[in-house]
Amino acid sequence: MNLVLLGPPGSGKGTQAKRLSERLGIPHISTGDILREAVREGTALGKEAKRFMDEGKLVPDEVVIGIVKERLRGEDCEKGAIFDGFPRTVAQAEALDRIMEELGRRVDRVIDIEVSEEEVLRRLTGRRTCKNCGAMYHVVFNPPKEPGVCDRCGGELYQRDDDREETIRERLRVYREQTEPLIDYYRSKGILYSVKGEGKIEDIEGEILRAIGVEG
Ligand code: ADP
Ligand code: ADP
Ligand code: ZN
C-alpha cells in the first residue's frame, strides 16, 4: 500500500502517518523530517533547504524529488510507504508517478485531511516535537505527561522555527497556491478520499483506515 497524506500544514499528517506506519508496518516518509535532519547536520542539502524553510517557501522540486527517489530505493519501501508532506506541487506528483512506475509500483490511495485555517493556527502555534524520536505533541490538545519531555523516549521537546504565526500564514498561502491543486489531480485519477481532520486523533485514524479498506 502506497499512501499519500495530503492536507495543509498542521492538519495532522505527521501524527497520523506515524500511527499508520506502526499499524501497517510500512515506513513513514516525511520530506520535512528529512530536510530538517539535513539542516541539523549542516550538509550541503541542509544549507540550501534552510533558506526556503525559514521563509515558509517550498524547497525546489528537483531537490525534494531527488530525496524521495533515493529514499524509495530502500528495501523497506518494497511493500509500500506512507508519504507525508510529499508531493506538494503538481510537478512533484508527476515525478512520483514516474518513479513509482519505474519501480513497478503505484500510488494506491490519497487521503485529503480537511482542517480549517483557524484550527491550523491553533495547532501549529502549540506544536512541540521530540528532538530525539520526532513524536508530535500539542501543549493543549495532545500534551506530554511531563511538560517538555517526550512520553515515548524521554527526549527533549522543541518548537520548530517555522511554527511562528507569520511563517504559518505564508505556509498556508503556499499550500493554497501550490499544493491544493493536487486534490483535483488525484481526484481525476479516482484515488482521492477526503477525511475530516478535526476531532479525536484515534477517530481520524479510524476514518483513514476505513478509506484504505483496513478495519480500525
Ligand atoms: P508541515 O508538516 O507543517 O506541513 P513539513 O515538515 O512537511 O511541514 O515541511 C516543512 C518545510 O519543509 C516546508 O515549509 C518546506 O519549506 C519544506 N518541505 C517539506 N516537504 C517539501 C516538499 N515536498 N516540497 C518542497 N518543500 C518541502
Ligand atoms: P502536519 O504534519 O500536517 O503539519 P502534525 O501531525 O504535526 O501536522 O500536527 C500539528 C499539531 O496538531 C501537533 O501539535 C499535533 O499534536 C496536533 N494535532 C494533530 N492531530 C490533532 C487532532 N486531531 N486534534 C488536535 N490536535 C491535533
Ligand atoms: Zn521522543
Layout of secondary structure:
Blueprint: E1 2-6, H1 13-24, E2 28-30, H2 31-41, H3 44-55, H4 61-71, E3 81-84, H5 90-102, E4 109-114, H6 117-125, E5 127-130, E6 136-138, E7 157-158, H7 165-179, H8 181-187, E8 192-196, H9 201-211
Parallel strand pairs: 1-3, 1-4, 2-3, 4-8
Antiparallel strand pairs: 5-6, 5-7
Helix pairs in contact: 1-9, 2-3, 4-5, 6-7
The protein binds adenosine-5'-diphosphate (2 copies) and zinc ion.
One adenosine-5'-diphosphate binds at residues 9-10, 13-14, 31-32, 35, 52-53, 56-59, 64, 85-86, 88, 92, 162, 171.
Q: Give the percentage of residues in beta strands.
A: 5-15%
The profile of the biggest β sheet is:
5 strands, parallel
Q: Output the strand order for the largest sheet.
A: 2-3-1-4-8
From the 3D structure, determine the CATH topology of the domain at 2-116 and 179-211: Rossmann fold
Shape: globular
**Averaged pLDDT, please?**
96
> Do you know the CATH architecture of the domain at 2-116 and 179-211?
3-Layer(aba) Sandwich
Radius of gyration: 16 Å
- In DSSP terms (H or I, runs of 4 or more residues), the helix count works out at 9
Number of strands: 8
Q: By helix and strand content, what is the structural category?
A: alpha/beta
Determine and state the CATH class of the domain at 2-116 and 179-211.
Alpha Beta
**How are helices and strands ordered from N to C?**
EHEHHHEHEHEEEHHEH
Give the distinct bound molecules: adenosine-5'-diphosphate, zinc ion
| CATH H-level homologous superfamily name of the domain at 2-116 and 179-211 | P-loop containing nucleotide triphosphate hydrolases
Helix content: 40-55%
**How many angstroms does the end-to-end distance come to?**
16 Å
Point out poorly predicted stretches.
none
